[in-house]
Amino acid sequence: MGSFHLRYGLDAPRLLALQWGAGAVLLGLLFTVDMPWLWLRACIAAAAAVTLLAGAWMLLYSGWIKLRHRKAVLEAAEVRSGQRVLDVGAGRGLLAIAAAQKGAKVTAIAQRSQEAEADKERQALLRNCELERTPSVRVMDGDAQRLPFADKSFEAVVSHAFVHRLPTADDRELAVLEMWRVLRPGGVLVLSDCRQTKPYEQIVSTLTEDMIVQRYRYALPFSSMLIARKK
């Protein structure tokens, strides 16, 4: 079992705080309020257990499970040494760093934004590259909807938990089409998202018949990974 760390960020910290806060409140009610009905105490105890366990699971996912999941993403993308790989919406470098450790020539797009949080993520990505002594990862600012690369530039294009964060359906469609544009024939596109990938499936299905969708149950909400090969 690999080491637990939050180097790649705590997923949904507000939801985690809400879950643990609600669990603490329910436990407080259970031990401080006199309740004459056993069934009510049982219901409150069950609700407290569920919320606290959900929070604990989210912490485990952020610090360990997603480190295992990136292996599945890169295997699906068939990332190998010497390949040119693009990670779109790279965040703190979860996929980009692991791909570079395989010997791939990795470009990581940090979505251009005026928000301070985006700059923090970019700095965290660079810091993680140093901490993991990663072979050079090319980090660029850019817009996923207008990728600054020529057609057919990469053997693999990957993205994790990013596309759904774009503000509109048109933006998300443009991002998927751009990823496809810069992918070489024979290359693989992998979109892993913490929400359903149905809209992406509809877009990619018009571009290739060589597409599958895998569901993975260790992420909540239950998530999907779209894998498509460009002919």
UniProtKB/TrEMBL annotation:
Question: Ranges for the Methyltransferase type domain?
Answer: 86-191
For the protein in the UniProt heading, the enzyme class is transferase
GO biological process: what's one of them?
methylation
Annotated GO molecular function terms are:
demethylmenaquinone methyltransferase activity; S-adenosylmethionine-dependent methyltransferase activity
Superkingdom, taxonomy of origin: Bacteria
- Cite the Pfam families for this sequence: Methyltransf_11
* Bilayer-crossing regions: 12-33, 39-61
Q: What is its EC number?
A: 2.1.1.163
Alphabetized, the UniProt keywords read: Membrane, Methyltransferase, Transferase, Transmembrane, Transmembrane helix
By what name is this protein known?
2-methoxy-6-polyprenyl-1,4-benzoquinol methylase, mitochondrial
Q: Which gene encodes it?
A: COQ5_5
